[in-house]
Specification:
Elements: E1 7-10, E2 13-16, E3 19-22, E4 27-32, E5 35-40, E6 48-56, E7 61-65, H1 68-71, E8 81-86, E9 90-95, E10 101-109, E11 114-122
Antiparallel strand pairs: 1-2, 2-3, 4-5, 6-11, 7-10, 8-11, 9-10
């Protein structure tokens, strides 16, 4: 079966071999006291999954074990990001990243500070995908206004596409 035969267009939405490609925004409808609202998906140049958690330093350090179910969805053999937010007076850093976890250590401040973290890792099986071409969408103004959108004075560096 050809790739074209597997593509379904639903207005501004394209379902293509299991991939969802949207010309507009991607959002969830969420009930609030003021009625239903849209919460929008974060976009990225690569295929990342994220997980969040809370912990506390004990005596200046904390070893975090990555959720084993999350670990099955990402490639922890490649470098991954850990973002830490402390809730108190402390300067911390991340060290000893591995496929099972990482450590948060105190540089200075409260040795028992509470913190949250966000781990962001490449989705397993999609590690090399980055800013893929969407040539099928070229010239389809209903998917996205033509570039440059409302920026007549915008000067961009030239970009050569890699084969």
């Amino acid at each position: 079966m050809s790739r074209e035969a597997l593509r379904v267009h639903l207005g501004d939405v394209v379902v293509d071999e299991g991939n969802l490609e949207v010309g507009g925004t991607k959002s969830a409808v969420v009930d609030t006291q003021d009625g239903r609202r849209l919460l929008y998906a974060e976009e990225a140049a690569e295929v990342w999954f994220a997980d969040y958690g809370f912990d506390r330093l004990v005596g200046g350090s904390s070893k975090i074990t990555i959720d084993p179910v999350f670990a099955q969805t990402v490639n922890l053999g490649q470098p991954y990001h850990v973002f830490v937010q402390v809730y108190g007076e402390a300067d911390v850093y991340v060290t000893d990243r591995s496929i099972v976890g990482f450590e948060v250590r105190l540089r200075q401040g409260d040795p028992n500070v509470e913190f949250s973290y966000r781990i962001v890792a490449k989705r397993l099986g999609f590690e090399d995908q980055r800013l893929e071409s969407a040539r099928w969408a070229d010239g389809k103004s209903h998917l996205q206004p033509e570039w440059p959108m409302n920026a007549p004075n915008l000067v961009l560096p030239s970009v050569s596409e890699t084969p």
